[in-house]
Amino acid sequence: MQAAEEIQLVKDFSNLNGASGFEMEVARFFQKKMAPYGTTKIDGMFNSYVQRRENNGHRPVVQMDAHADSVGFITQAVRPNGLLKFVPLGGWAPTNIPAMRVRVRNRAGQYITGVVATKPPHFMSDAEKNAVPKIEDLSIDVGSTSREETINDFQIDTGCPIVVDADCEYFANTRMFFGKDFDNRVGAAALVDVLDNLQGQDLNVDLSVALSTQEEVGTRGAQVTVRNIDPDLAIVFEGCPCDDTFSPSWLAQTGLKRGPMLRDMDTSFIANPLFEQYADDIATKNGIPHTRSVRTGGGVNGAPILYYRGAPTIVIGIPVRYEHTAFNWACLDDFQNAVQLAVKIIQSLDASVINSFNGGN
Ligand SMILES: [Zn+2]
């Protein structure tokens, strides 16, 4: 795929609306982009699947995964003044929410502009200025002056999902993307790019791709996709949080322009160490910059995929700064290197390589 196409793909995926549980738009776009490379379908949870056109059904099955959803919110109730009381979908820090611009999907499926309401500093006491807000006390204002107007005219009521409102920009001089939801739309775009790279090639494995839903609320979609695919090995793409702006350099394990990150461990998952080292060696052999990480927080779709039937699984992280906030940075080079690493790994796989990760028997 040409760089210009990759840039457009990342921008398009970033701009889509897909809070956890409401990934229809992302699933449909993914299906359209994947149509040239295989047969596609979407299940009742909006998980999207692609069977690579060249699969023959007689080779080991490799599952590739990324998640479609982003952190967001859902309307719990409309307050008497017309503002929305909301609850989070996925992990938010309360300090990152106030004054954010959002889009609320109304009952008619239209996106309505809103803002997380804040009291102007003019009215704040010193204590209020320094306090961390409680999410349950926050509201979203769509420009309505009453509960009736919000419900009847805006068609917003209980159950309407809410996402960050930001348009993705690409800065050619620094090769940086700036926008929302790079966790994990960069992973979704990478899946398309991998299949584009491999189109028409002879492989020794069958490739089954899933863009799974509801990752941010507990890796729920991947629990379903792994059962439908039943893989012998899995590679998970994830937009992974950078620590390069606040960790000392010797400890920073995910950074912009440092290449994809291979995650050894987080709180949900320990990668198969034989497959992990294999991927590290392939990256080194091909001159692909990369890092390894051991995390004391976080969770990934690698966990439900691994736990289903023990298929060797790794996570290839694309570094993203300021995940789970309104605005993120990510670098085109890291995206391209993550795609290339996955492509090189897949091209090298066959039944005996996969078997060598199963305890070396
Ligand atoms: Zn993620």
What is this structure's SSE topology?
Blueprint: H1 3-15, H2 24-34, E1 38-42, E2 48-52, E3 61-67, E4 72-78, E5 84-89, E6 101-105, E7 111-116, H3 126-130, E8 139-141, H4 147-153, E9 161-164, E10 169-171, E11 176-179, H5 182-198, E12 206-212, H6 221-229, E13 233-241, E14 261-265, H7 273-285, E15 291-294, H8 302-309, E16 313-320, E17 328-331, H9 332-348, H10 351-356
Parallel strand pairs: 3-12, 3-13, 13-16, 14-15
Antiparallel strand pairs: 1-2, 2-12, 4-5, 4-9, 5-8, 6-7, 6-9, 7-8, 10-11, 11-17, 14-16
The chain binds zinc ion.
Active site: 215
Binding site for Zn(2+) 1: 67, 183, 238
Protein name: Glutamyl aminopeptidase
Shape: globular
Number of domains: 2
Oligomer: single chain
CATH architecture of the largest domain: 3-Layer(aba) Sandwich
Mean pLDDT: 96
Question: Could you characterize what this model shows?
Answer:
This protein is of the alpha+beta class and 361 residues long. The chain folds into 2 domains: 3-70 and 180-356, Zn peptidases (Aminopeptidase, 3-Layer(aba) Sandwich); 73-164, Peptidase M42, domain 2 (Elongation Factor Tu (Ef-tu), domain 3). Helices cover 29% and strands 25% of the residues. It has an 8-stranded mixed β-sheet, sandwiched between helices. Strands 4-5-8-7-6-9 form a 6-stranded antiparallel barrel. Helix 1 (3-15) packs antiparallel against helix 5 and helix 6 (221-229) packs across helix 8 (302-309). The longest helix has 17 residues, at 182-198. The mean pLDDT is 96. Zinc ion binds at residues 67, 183-184, 215, 238-239.
